[in-house]
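Convert to structure. Protein one:
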Amino acid sequence: MKRRKFLTSAALAAAAAPVAAVQIASPAIAQSAPEIKWRLASSFPKSLDTIYGAAETVANRVAAATDGKFQIRVFAAGEIVPGFQVLDAVQNATVEIGHSASYYFVGKDPTFAFDTAVPFGLNARQQNAWMYYGGGLELMREFFKDYSIYQIPCGNTGAQMGGWFRKEIKTVEDLNGLKFRVGGFAGKVLAKLGVVPQQIPGGDIYPALEKGTIDAAEWVGPYDDEKLGFNKVAQFYYYPGWWEGGPQLSVYVNQAQWDGLPKTYQAILEAACGEANGLMLSKYDAQNMPALRRLVQGGTKLKPFSKEVMEAAYKAAFEVYDETASSNPKFKKVYDAWKPFREEQYLWFRVAENSFDNFVYAKSAQKS
C-alpha cells in the first residue's frame, strides 16, 4: 500500500516537473523575444471575410502565440498595392509579407499556377497531399526562390463554381468571342475554345459585368458571389469550375525577412498559416449551400456545363500543358512530378472516396 502511494506520488511529481519548467522558462523566452511589426498586403477586399479573413487569422494567431511581440497588420487590396501587385511588393520588400493566389501571376511564369490550381487538377484534399507529402512544397519553394520569396500554403476555397453568364452556354460555339473574367491558367485553356479571357481583381468584377465590359465572370462560389452581387447583373450560374478543383492561397514572405525571423517565430507563423488553411475550407463548405439556396430562391438559374463543353475543355487543357512544358523548363519540372501524383490520387479517390460519396449522395437525392 505504501509502495503504491509512493509510486503515485512520484508519478505526479514527474508529471508536474515539465509544467513547472515551462512556467519558469516562459518569462525568460518572452523577455528575449524581439518585437517585430510587419505589414501584410492582401490581394482581396475586406468585404470577403473568408478569403481576406485568412490573413487576419494568421495575424491574430501569431500575435497571441508571441504575447503580442510579433505583430502583423493586414491591408486589403489597394490599401498599399493593388491586388495583382502583392507578389512584386513582397519581392521588392515594399511589405514584408503578402497573401494571394499565385495563379494571378502566370503572366510572369505559368509555373505559378501549380501553387493555386490548374484546370482539371487536384481537389482541396489532394492539393494539400501534394503540397505537404507529395513534394509540391519543395518544388514550389525552389521556384519561389527566384522571386526572393518564402511561400507557405494558407487557405483553400474547395471546388469553385463555373461563373455567372448573361446568356446560356450550351455548346462550345457559345463560348466563341465571350469576354470572360477568369483567374489563372484557365485563360489559356479557354482561349483555345474561343473565349477572350480577362483577369480582373475581385473588387472590380461587378462594375465590369454591370457595364458590359465583360460578358461573364467567375470568382469563388455562392458565399462570396452573393456578397459581390453578381446575381444582380447576370442570370445564369454555371458549375463546376473545372479550372479550380481545389485552389490554394499562399502567404509570401520576403526571403531576407524570413531568414531574419527567430526560429520560434518562423514555426509560429507556419503553424498559423496551417490553421488558416483548414479554417478557410471549412467555412466555405459550411456557408456555400445556404448562400446557393438564397441565390436560387432569388431567381438565379443554376446550370451545369454540358458534356460537350467539359470534354472540349479537358482536351484543350492537356494540350496547353504539353505545349507549355515543351517550352518552359520550370513548368516542365513541376508538371512532370505533379501529373503522376495526380493520377495516383485519382486512383485512390475512385476506390474509397468516390464510391462512398456517390452512394450516399444518391441516397440523399432520393429523399429530396
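Protein two, convert as well:
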Amino acid sequence: MPPSAKTAAPKSAAGSLASFCPWAAEEGVRVYLRPVGLMPVAAWAKGAAVPLAGGRFSFATAELIVRQGSRQGERIERAFAPLSEILAWGWERSRAVAETLDRQLGALTRARAPFGGLELGRPAIMGIVNVTPDSFSDGGDFLDPAAAIAHGEALLAAGADILDVGGESTRPGSAPVAPEEEEARVLPVIRHFAGKGAVVSVDTRHARVMASSIGAGARIVNDIAGLGDPLALPVVAKSGTPVVLMHMLGEPGTMQRDPHYADAALDVFDWLEERVARCAAAGVPPERIAVDPGIGFGKTVEHNLAILRHTALYHALGCAVLIGLSRKAFIGRLSRGETPKDRLAGSLAAGLETLNQGAQILRVHDVAETAQARALWEALHPL
C-alpha cells in the first residue's frame, strides 16, 4: 500500500524544508509533487521507496513545487527532499496543503488500470494513421482508405498496440474539416481494423465523429481539444469509452502565434487537472482517462522542453500519461531534422526519456523503430 500523509509523516519537517516557503498556507497557493531520482521498482519491494503508477520505477524523493499568483505577479519556489520530509512539511503549513500532497501521492503511487483493454505494465505504442491530405508529416500519403488500411496493417505488423485514426489535420495553421468529411475518411478504416479485433482510437475533436466512430468499433477517443465540444463529454460518459485528454493553447490555426505561460509545465498540469475533475463529475473516472500535455500544440521549443522534463509530474493526475512528440518541429529546431521524416532519432531519444519518467503510451509515426527501442529499454529496466 502507498504511504499516506496521515500515517507516514514524521512529527516535524527537517533538513532543507525546515524554513522552506513560509507563505505556503496563504490563500491561492497550489502545491505539486514531481517524483525524482527514480529507482527500480524492486526498491519498493525492499521498503526503500514507493511505486510510480504501478510501473517499472519507484521513488523516495520528490521535487516540491509551491506557486501563488498575485497582483504583484507569480511566485514559485522549489525544493527537493525525501517524501517523509515533504509530507511533514505539508502538515506544518496547513491541513489543506497536507491533504493536497496526500492526494497527489496516492495518485502517483496507484497502479494504472488497463486502458482501452490494454495492460499498461509495458509502455504501449500508438501508431498514427492520418487519413488526411495535409497532415504535417505524411499528409496525402494515406488519404485513400485502401492506402490507410494498408498502412495500418503495416503498423500492426511492426508492433503497434493501438492504431490512432484521424481525418482532420491539426498541424499549426490548419483549417477545420467538416464532421461529415471527417467521418467519410475515418469510418471505413475504423470498421476494418475493429472487425479484426485491433485496438483503434479515433483522433477527433468533434462529438459527432466520436459517436459514429465508437459505433464503428473505436475503443478510445483521442481528443486534442480535451472534450471542448459541448457534446463530447456526454458521448464519452454515456458510451463508457476511454478518452485521451490533450492540452492545446488556442486553436490549430492560431496556436503557434506567440504562446505564453506563467510556467508551462504547471499551467498544463492545472488545465488537465480541471478537465479530469470535469470528467469525473460526469461519470468518467481517472481509470478511463489518459492525459497528454500536448507537445507542439501552442508551445515554443522551451515550453516543450520544460513539459518533457516534468513528465513524471503528470502522474499526480491519477491517469495514464500519453506523450505525442513524434517528428514534431521542435526536434528539427534543436537538430538538423529539416523535414518531419528526418526527425526519427530525436523522436526516439525524447520518447525514451519520457519512458524513463513512467509514461505509459507513446504516439508515434515510426512504429518499427519505436518497438525496437522499447524492447531494448525493457531489457534495461526489467520488472
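The first helix runs from residue 5 to 8. The chain is about 35% helix and 20% strand.
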